[in-house]
């Protein structure tokens, strides 16, 4: 093989990249996913509904498959990855893991078809939260826990991708968190390995605290554990068909607080515990995100009090919970906000396209991109007023390079074009306009519920046709990996050495 590659290189012919390092990492991660299936196996044994063989079989298949992939690629392991291999790895992981993660849904009590199982697993690992399953109230606890585990693993995976891969790949302006001027980690922090360990520890700690608070306010141990996982991951899978509506009351305040915490940059928490008490408060992302929530909640409170005639406390609670859930991309719903009027429906559609902070478990466009967009617009308006002046867009008090601005603008263009294409593709499968446009938006933004009677907060994706489900599955992948990470691997030049 090496001789063939050398001959091709001498002849000046392009040849495919070495995918063995990518396969090795994917194999290891698949094997880890298989080991994670043993946790719901134990829960099924404790529940006594005879579902544990499903996870035993799924675990064996997944661990053997992952081990086989890793061993077959072990001879190609290198000290580092090229930029092409990094792109391929980032995309391939989010393709391989949902395929193996879907196995318990096919073999389990759901008896899911391939399209439904892959949709559910992709929705879990991308922390989208849209579901094709009904009868969640009576579903075996092992399968419910597996859905929560998929989202919890996907949440920490998103943080790693946002911190390590996307800045290196210069995707969608994420390089702003890599450059020396915008050193996200700060000079006071220890080396990268320790930072990653601290972030993982904080992720686990937040989950435990969230579970304990849920437990204190009345959830069962199982519900508290599963919902804590899907809250901190901003995933939104619930154990009930009514989503979070079965926990109406003080529990909504608890969920809102932890959804906000999970949508903030985890690296700022690391800075806090390493002696920088103002890191979180000074981050422009954090200020912008909190202010956006505040404004949206106030708007909805006024609407609910004047238009829907809810009491002050209930109006504030339902507005806070549902706004936080949608803007963070969690996707829990406590009420059918489709009944709040056309203004509220339009508001929920657009707030789903905002998103949380970079470096968090949140999804969608992200606050920092809108801040950079507005900074660029402001600078351009000043240039128009004063043609001879020099005006540079600034972020966090520092100048923003043209490369970063171009990357952000490209992301917005790609996002809008992709949203349009996915919407058209969904409409071609026979879906109505509202379902098509909101389905495309919620999948690309990884939010969860869409709008309308079918996929709105009171519905789910179960009744959609198979082509629509496959389209949405692809859209979830595109949105979670910031679009261009996936698009670039389909270019001819990408595969040239």
Automatic annotation (TrEMBL):
Topology of this chain in the membrane: Multi-pass membrane protein
Residues passing through the membrane, by range: 21-43, 55-74, 86-107, 144-166, 201-222, 242-267, 288-304, 343-368, 404-426, 470-490
Localization (cell): Cell inner membrane; Cell membrane
Gene Ontology MF terms: metal ion binding; potassium:chloride symporter activity
Record bears the keyword Transmembrane helix: yes
One Pfam family it belongs to: TrkH
Top-level taxon of the source organism: Bacteria
Annotated keywords: Cell inner membrane, Cell membrane, Ion transport, Membrane, Metal-binding, Potassium, Potassium transport, Transmembrane, Transmembrane helix, Transport
Signal peptide location: none
InterPro entries from the UniProt entry: Cat_transpt, TrkH
Binding site for K(+): 127-128, 235, 330, 446-447
Annotated function: Low-affinity potassium transport system. Interacts with Trk system potassium uptake protein TrkA.
UniProt family annotation: Belongs to the TrkH potassium transport family.
UniProt name for this protein: Trk system potassium uptake protein
Lineage: Bacteria, Pseudomonadati, Pseudomonadota, Alphaproteobacteria, Rhodobacterales
